[in-house]
């Protein structure tokens, strides 16, 4: 009987605390949860040249390094949204922006028109072929601490300025936006009520087990 109690309670607690493990996607040597990438373009400004994609949204969402977008428009920006995860202010850098060719500078803010910080990308040592041409892959990593965001804070969007020209007259050719620290929308910790309900179900099952045992002994 004691072993039955332990089994039922253990199963209830396990169900109450269970979270699904995310698969890993690697982009230019950097690991991400498979749903950690921007999913949509919430707003944008500027005229864009696209490579490997038919729309601006397709060019900058998802983990593939086979597409890009760039703009020479003054004030050009992309407000990228995360729909199945949050960008989290965790340990170390929190966001990675991948672009191609000569390293360029992104202007990043939390909101449109908000406080902006600039980040120069660096060569990852990887390359990608797009439209028959090979490009070096660069990444700029952003720490949300730079914006005064509290530890553990969760964001559903980020604004990326695209119009800073480098010394060679180039601008960023953005291809991938990935959350280095990411939280699933469905990975919430069970509340006390759900845990109590699960325990209640366990004890109900235990009661039925005891009744069946008594019937067998009569």
Kindly describe this structure.
The chain is an alpha+beta fold and 218 residues long. It has 2 domains: 2-14 and 190-217; 22-184, Galactose-binding domain-like (Jelly Rolls). It has helices at 2-16, 56-60, 192-217, and strands spanning 24-27, 30-33, 40-45, 49-51, 68-70, 77-81, 85-88, 95-100, 105-109, 116-120, 122-130, 133-142, 154-155, 157-161, 174-179, 182-184. The chain has a 5-stranded antiparallel beta sheet. Strands 11-12-8-15 form a 4-stranded antiparallel beta sheet, with no helix packed on it. It has a 3-stranded antiparallel beta sheet with strand order 13-7-16, with no helix packed on it. Helix 1 runs antiparallel to helix 3 (192-217). The model is unreliable at 1-21, 188-199, 201-206 and 208-215 (pLDDT under 50).
List keywords for this structure.
218 residues, disordered N terminus, 2 domains, alpha+beta, 3 helices, single chain, Jelly Rolls, globular, four-stranded antiparallel sheet, 21% helix, five-stranded antiparallel sheet, 16 strands
Average pLDDT over all residues: 84
Secondary structural class? alpha+beta
Question: Beta-sheet strand percentage?
Answer: 35-45%
- Total domain modules: 2
Overall 3D form? globular
Could you say what the CATH architecture of the largest domain is?
Sandwich
**How many strands in all?**
16
Low-confidence stretches: 1-21, 188-199, 201-206, 208-215
CATH topology of the largest domain: Jelly Rolls
Global Rg: 24 Å
What is the overall number of helices? 3
Helices and strands, in N-to-C order?
A: HEEEEHEEEEEEEEEEEEH
Give me the CATH superfamily of the largest domain: Galactose-binding domain-like
Looking across the biggest beta sheet, what order are the strands in? 3-6-14-9-10
CATH class of the largest domain: Mainly Beta
Quaternary assembly: single chain
* Distance between the ends: 17 Å
């Amino acid at each position: 009987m004691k072993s039955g109690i332990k089994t039922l309670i253990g199963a209830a607690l396990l169900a109450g605390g269970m979270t699904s493990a995310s698969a890993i996607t690697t982009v230019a040597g950097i690991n991400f949860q498979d749903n950690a990438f921007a999913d949509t373009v919430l707003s944008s400004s500027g005229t864009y040249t696209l490579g490997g994609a038919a729309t601006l949204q397709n060019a900058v969402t998802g983990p593939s390094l086979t597409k890009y977008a760039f703009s020479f428009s003054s004030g050009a920006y992309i407000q990228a949204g995360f729909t199945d995860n949050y960008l989290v202010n965790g340990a170390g850098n929190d966001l990675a922006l991948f672009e191609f060719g000569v390293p360029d500078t992104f202007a990043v803010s939390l909101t449109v028109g908000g406080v902006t910080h600039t980040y120069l990308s660096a060569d990852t040592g990887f390359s990608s072929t797009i439209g028959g041409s090979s490009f070096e892959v660069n990444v700029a990593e952003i720490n949300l601490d730079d914006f005064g965001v509290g530890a553990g804070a969760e964001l559903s969007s980020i604004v990326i300025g695209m119009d800073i020209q480098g010394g060679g007259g180039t601008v960023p050719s953005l291809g991938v936006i990935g959350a280095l620290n990411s939280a699933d929308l469905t990975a919430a910790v069970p509340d006390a009520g759900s845990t109590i309900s699960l325990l209640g179900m366990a004890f109900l099952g235990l009661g039925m087990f005891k009744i069946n045992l008594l019937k067998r002994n009569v």
